[in-house]
Design brief:
Length: about 400
């Protein structure tokens, strides 16, 4: 995987050229229909501004939500065009369709430095099927293609993979390059000690990540719901905690693999347990593997939080994917917060792998202290698994 050697917007001449840019404008909206978190749009501005400043004719595309292959104006990108117009200080011309008359006529009339946004690519069911005919129509809007949507890089769809078959030049934008640099270097060329922190609910969803990272890290920390499967595999009791009985053997094999590789595997030594899945439930702290019947583990305990925080202090690179407990409930957010605080206070390069971990560090107020927060949960997870991401692989390599 030659991820670290992709052509970028700076490697090509865009002046006077029509450039199709795949962005990730899949942003949340509030009850009034206003964009409630524009982070993903803001992350795309550097690439868009570069193209505008270098006199390209810019055609932006993205998906939004799950319109299920139909024109559903609830998922229209029109509010994004409005936001972009203000952010760029110039009109972003909003097309009424994706590959129809409106999109094509606006694209044809663009002057150098002007910007068009076409409608939600998922209004066509062909998008997610990577249908060649639809990809060809989309590609016909432009001469150059730029992929700046890391959030969908793990999907082989028309707007991030199919179109590259019908243009001579396919490069990555600044955001995509930043993701590749941080995640790629962290996994393939980390400053050491390299610590990976994995949380979340299920071992099954992180099997390949654990397997891949044990070959690369110096310390592997496992918390969250998946830790109870490891505790059970070690002969402990886990009460009503999350448990995957089918993965007990796997948990033991991973412990053996870590030992054989000389990797320090840290598991919880205590847990905060509750008698109901509720913020107001009765709680107690018990040693890991000693959770009584009728109780469930909802967070790592204070001794574990200290153990994990100490492991981070001497790290040079830290990758974190998955919370340590049910952080959405304040009484069970302490473990996740302790880890976030430790990362905020370290001098290491700290990389948060999107999804719940990104939400957690932002909600807890530590987001601006992290070196890099990935914009793609699923994509970053597959990157950490060592998988090839179709959206990245499709871009041209540097000579």
């Amino acid at each position: 995987m030659n991820y670290l050697n992709k052509k970028t917007v700076e490697d090509i001449d865009v002046k006077g050229k029509k450039v199709l840019v795949r962005c990730d404008f899949n942003v949340p909206f509030d009850a009034e229909g206003n964009i409630s978190d524009p982070k993903r749009i803001n992350e795309a501005l550097k690439t868009i501004k570069y193209l505008v400043d270098h006199q390209a004719k810019v055609i932006l595309c993205s998906h939004l939500g799950r319109p299920k292959g139909e024109f559903n104006m609830k998922y229209s990108l029109a509010p994004v065009a409005e936001y972009l117009s203000k952010a760029l200080g110039q009109e972003v011309k909003m097309a009424k369709d994706v590959i129809g008359e409106s999109a094509k006529s606006i694209a044809a009339s663009l002057k150098d430095g002007e910007v068009e946004l076409i409608e939600n690519v998922r209004f066509h069911k062909e998008e997610e099927k990577n249908d060649p005919a639809f990809a060809k129509e989309l590609a016909s809007l432009a001469e150059i293609y730029v992929n700046d949507a890391f959030g969908t890089a793990h999907r082989a769809h028309c707007s991030n993979v199919g179109v590259t078959q019908y243009v001579d030049t396919a490069v990555v934008g600044y955001l995509m390059q930043k993701e590749i640099d941080f995640l790629g270097n962290a996994v393939n060329n980390p400053a050491r000690p390299f610590v990976a922190i994995l949380g979340g609910s299920k071992v099954s969803s992180k099997i390949s990540v654990i397997d891949n990272l044990i070959d690369k890290v110096d310390v592997l920390i496992i918390g969250g719901g998946m830790a109870y499967t490891f505790a059970k595999a070690a002969g402990g009791t886990v009460g009503d905690s999350l448990l995957e009985m089918d993965y007990l053997d796997y948990a033991n094999k991973m412990k053996e693999k870590a030992a054989a590789k000389g990797v320090k595997l840290l598991l919880p030594v205590d847990n905060v347990v509750a008698d109901a899945f509720s913020n107001d439930a009765n709680t107690q702290v018990v040693p890991a593997g000693q959770i009584p019947d009728g109780w469930e583990g909802l967070d790592i305990g204070p001794e574990t939080a200290k153990l994990f925080a100490d492991a981070v202090k001497t790290a040079k690179t830290v990758v974190w994917n998955g919370p340590m407990g049910c952080f959405e409930m304040p009484n069970f957010a302490h473990g996740t917060e302790a880890v976030a605080k430790a990362l905020a206070e370290t001098d290491a390069t700290t990389i948060i792998g999107g999804g719940d971990s990104a939400a957690a560090v932002n909600i807890l107020g530590y987001g601006d202290k992290m070196t890099h927060i990935s914009t793609g949960g699923g994509a970053s997870l597959e990157f950490l698994e060592g998988k090839e991401l179709p959206g990245v692989a499709a871009a041209n390599d540097k000579d």
